[in-house]
């Protein structure tokens, strides 16, 4: 944002307090004061800073220069509370051209002590600036040269011109009076300019010279605004002035509006809607005659120095809070402009750990010596190399992706404990051959078995057909033979559903610990200079985080509750296909068909061809083998249905819990508005508390002052060394 500021003599007849207020108000909202402000608030906002430059287009006699020199940088301001002091110093430089030209260090010698100033407080004037004395002693009372403010990170896109106050007489003659008048008329004339007329309360606005100038270029008052300053200066006994002020502002200029039976009160006038816009020439002429400003009148009271300091400190406190919020938001989302991805990667590791735990909570059934899981190795995110390694460990030569593990690769009986001499004597050297041996191995939970279950990400206690049969028998009632109770199926599903809640809550706790650690370190880093503010912001952030955690817990509870409390899917086709595939694998594991050599396969195909001539069609030997009934068909069908359902449901719960954490907790963690609200809950009156919170340790402040003073002296010495006299 670019700002042009036309400087006026500090001793002119204008409202200097209003100008000071405008400087700070514009600086706080993206526009400037003591001059004219042009802003660009569009696009991505950059960090706030203000570059103050000196624009010299006139000589000391206020005559245009033949060639305008480039603008000269005066200083760079990063604290909005420093703008007023820096603009005043820049004005002093322009109003004392000869003194500044001969000063060591040039204009930069008059820059206020920004390096030693506390945030939110006005900086001290430099020694050369104090040596200039009062404004009445300046070389020039007025100059057409400008102080230019360029503001980055502004919220507005506008230009504000702070013109010198209208004067009627001056010690240096009428030329100065005419120069001020000429400048004012020049800037009031353009039809796209909004005219802001600032006058102290108690003065009759319509009799002021500036109102006359505005009336000449805006007779109908459509682009003029009245600003009434210093309302607190009106005496309590001045009832007429007070009533006139209230009526002026409340009625948008309808002074003396009469009704039947007398004049309306201020409240009645305030309740009346504004008059409709003028449409006809006659109405426009009437509007010009009444002299009212159509953009309204506003009363502005300057805050006290204590209030100003409180507001400036509050702005600084919120700026620090925003830096905390932006840092948290960048860490959570791994912004492209941030180099550190550690926190994001840490959260990703927690999500993967949660996914691994949910994988191991999905059902698996032991049929014969084979463990059959609801998830394939690909579903478990196992890489091809891991699949091959797991297959080799399980004694599988093909490295298939079906999620089956044959316990026949385990030693049976298991090895005995180590002997005192350090060796282990095996009780037996055989392998598991029967289902009973496999069930016994599951019960004993030996080290070899645990390692195999861990490698394949299988539950630590798979369910056996005997357990499934006992579960079904408990629910048998009036069902006909060949039918399984649906209540038995529901209990089977609930046995595995209930484990998801524990894993979801564990994932949230891990993320919470990481977030609290990040929040604490971020607050400590950003507010380490202000211990009191650090404690308050930390408490506000903790309160904000607690509310987000409660909302996240509620959402996760709802998600897990839906999965635990219901059995539902619309993905019928995938469920049926999965159920058929699982049933075939379960039956194959139970019957354990013998592999056929080439001659046997040829003979079987001939037999199947003969059967097809009788209408009995089997596509393969395996399909014919699986068609034969078994004593546990009902149990196998229940197990296949359970595995198929969890293959569908697992994909939902695996992603929904991390997504809920990301959406409800992490995405809102660095929200500026919510953090501000949390801070205001801790500090109802931020402006009153901010100055105390931003107090530095006295030793740190003194050290900063010393460093600033040393830097200033080094700059002065460098300027002397680089001066033409030093080169001789």
TrEMBL record:
It comes from the Eukaryota. GO terms for molecular function: GTP binding; GTPase activity; microtubule binding. Residues 635-728 form the GED domain. Pfam families: Dynamin_M, Dynamin_N, GED. Residues 1-26 have a biased composition (Low complexity). Residues 27-44 have a biased composition (Gly residues). One of its GO terms (cellular component) is membrane. It comes from Chlamydomonas incerta. Residues 1-47, 260-287, 393-429 are annotated as: Disordered. SUPFAM superfamilies: P-loop containing nucleoside triphosphate hydrolases (SSF52540). InterPro entries: Dynamin, Dynamin_N, Dynamin_stalk, GED, GED_dom, P-loop_NTPase. This is GED domain-containing protein.
